[in-house]
Amino acid sequence: MAEHFSKRGQVELLRQHGFVVVPGLLPAERCEAIKQAARTELAPPQGPVEFEADLRYPGAPQSHAAPGGNTVRRLLDAYARNALYRQWATSTAIRNWMELYFGEHVALSRAHHNCMMTKHPTYGSLTGWHRDVRYWAFEREDLVSVWLALGTETVENGALWFVPGSHAVDFAPERFDKAKFFRADVPENAALISTAVSPVLNPGDVVFFHCNTLHSAGKNLTDDVKFSLVFTYHGVSNAPVPGTRSAAKPEVPL
Q1: PANTHER family attached here (predicted)?
Q2: Sheet holding 127-130, edge to edge
Q3: pTM of this prediction?
């Protein structure tokens, strides 16, 4: 378990496996305060949001007019929308961890992730196997996302799945579909997917995962909304490519 490793040891686990779970990085009471803020912003939806119907992933409503059509998938631009989110994103704990990994000062990307992920019962969709870097544009494919569980996350409520070591594999383009999802119908892909793991997360647990790590998430089969706060970081020497979505918002140096 990662809690038995030093911070440097945790970073090495990330380098080796493409992800690492660090338990209890944020106290439960702070997680509850953040989750309550998110609940307030959902009823009714406030600020920029992404709806399940916008993406139409498997299990999502097919339009805003369909049942569940106004189900929120993400509360966007978390950094700007709430001081509680911002305090976590720029905390000393995150800065120190990221600087140890990148070996330099770091920046938070406001163009990618930077959101409160919500997974609703019934209308929350599943997410196919993919690498986040499929729609990111930086000088180097070396970014790390920080996923904070605000409640318990299990397979039953749509927790993340990861393929260990997949961040280090150079896949041929044909192993992905047109939307750059990893094709489960390809036998060698299916064999790799069979090695995936889904770590159980408790409130305050954090997953650090590389932008090239294959991951997915299922549907929420429980009665409660699942909340997760997600930010992405990179070393300051790894700049977003000008004119791309990755450079669309000013970054936040830590």
Answers
A1: PHYTANOYL-COA DIOXYGENASE DOMAIN CONTAINING 1, PHYTANOYL-COA HYDROXYLASE
A2: 127-130, 215-217, 160-162
A3: 0.94
Q: Which two tokens stand for residue 205?
A: 């647990």
Furthest C-alpha separation in the chain: 51
Alpha-carbon span 168 to 171, nearest angstrom: 9
pLDDT digits (tens, 9 = 90+) for 22-72: 999 999 999 999 999 999 999 888 889 998 888 878 778 888 888 888 888
For the chain, domain boundaries: 7-61+70-253
| DSSP-derived secondary structure letter, 30 | H
Task: Please calculate the CA angle 174-178-183 and round it to the nearest 5 degrees.
Answer: 55
Average pLDDT across the chain, whole number: 93
Protein fold of 7-61+70-253: Jelly Rolls (2.60.120)
Q: Coil, strand, or helix at residue 12?
A: helix
According to DSSP, the residues that pair with 203 across neighbouring strands are: none
Contact 216, 127 (CB under 8 A): yes
For helices 7-17 and 92-102, the axis angle rounded to 10 degrees is 60
Tokens of 119: 């997974």
For 138-152, the pLDDT digits (tens) are 999 999 999 999 999
From CA 94, how far away is CA 147, in angstroms rounded? 11
The residue with tokens 């294959």 is 214
